[in-house]
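Ticket #483: bound-state structure for glutamine.
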Amino acid sequence: MIDATVKTLSAGLSAGKLSAVELAEEFLRRIDAHNGRINAFITVDRDLTLAEARRADDLRAAGKAGPLTGIPIAQKDIFCADGWLTTCGSKMLSNFVAPYDATVIAKFKQAGAVNLGKTNMDEFAMGSSNETSFYGSVKNPWNDQMVPGGSSGGSAAAVAARLAPAATGTDTGGSIRQPAALCGITGIKPTYGICSRYGMIAFASSLDQAGPMAKTAEDCALLLNTMAGFDPRDSTSLERPSEDYARDLDRPLSGLRIGLPREFFAAGLEQEVAAAILAAVEELKKLGATTVEVTLANAKLAIPVYYVLAPAEASSNLARFDGVRYGYRAPEYTDLDDMYCKTRAQGFGAEVKRRILIGTYVLSAGYYDAYYLQAQKIRRLIADDFAQAFKVCDVIAGPTAPNTAFKLGAKTDDPVQMYLNDLYTIPANLAGLPGMSLPCGFDRRGLPIGLQLVGDYFAEARMLNVAHQYQLATDWHMRKPTL
Ligand code: GLN
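RESOLUTION: The complex was predicted; output attached.
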């Protein structure tokens, strides 16, 4: 049961071979047995989960079941879920029980999916290794000396370790794709505006986007069908007709044009990762695709641009955590100012403080034009490069991350080295484009390697098609770590 895809579990539930309660019990047992070591979940609440599972079984008995009814899903702890502790990986929200559901959570509930628990993450989604979490680092299930990637590291590790059949993530600069790559699973960040950000704790609002993480592209399509959709409560939500993201899964790849950006294969890319990516591209060619070289000349500026814009937005978004309305408040203080200062000094970790300081600096009078405005202009150039590339190709392929999982602690003292892990993922966020990662091999230490696909706006169904066809021809995505 634990190795089954969502698609298979869904068929089993429909056929009456198992109940939602049995399924939830099975995964709760797995979590009990292994979470102590992997630390993928911050909150597990047996009673809440089983109540949702019973409701799913009732829905089915009443003939109201859909494809996700009774499927347990691990939810990143960035999504507010009514009655659940929702920490965002921070001491600042360590006592915050959400009084409402994020739209994504509400949509899963409506579909009858079961909330299996809240997954560990970098504090406020700031990080690439899950080491900035107030709740301790997550261990990579393939090797517990290694990071799982971040910030959705708990979700990625939970799926890889078979503690959950699927999970949610959010991706501001790579946080779905990079941990998916480092843990050997599949994940997609849709076009900006496809999934509502309502109730999803904000990091950098112009970049944040939710998406599914699962074993297969087919499962991701199923989850995305539930997660996506217009929401009047999010002003950046796109008002478009709903679509079936699984509609193109079976389309043959003949005629597919794959763009290979020269910049994604330059210095900094680990040899073994490069080799696996090129082998995956060869496999896609065998399935009928052709390749063309494309140029993303400004992609090299993506990291500096992102580390101006994302902190700027974060400094503003995180101003709300002041000890007054909700969350942590310093126990001792002399007056209001002192309460703000002590609360924020004690409630935020080092990386979050670093971002708030950078963001406040680049937005301050005198520096705004030199940094923030400049970064916005380059952001546009990066989007323009993609627009040029998509004139000659349907989808871009390259590595998700320059390396496989690295040792816990290896980059914690060097933020710039940490930031460089998102070299290939950040450009898609800056342009608002959909991107995904899928397993395409292992390095000699047995650590997974992820292939990244980036598509034009609203090309999710096509990307999932490419990934699904690749997964029909290969079995990297079905390999699993021994726990
Ligand atoms: N690693 C990047 C950062 O630290 C991206 C994180 C994310 O996508 N949430 O900001």
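RESOLUTION NOTES: The two ends are 16 Å apart (CA to CA).
TICKET STATUS: resolved
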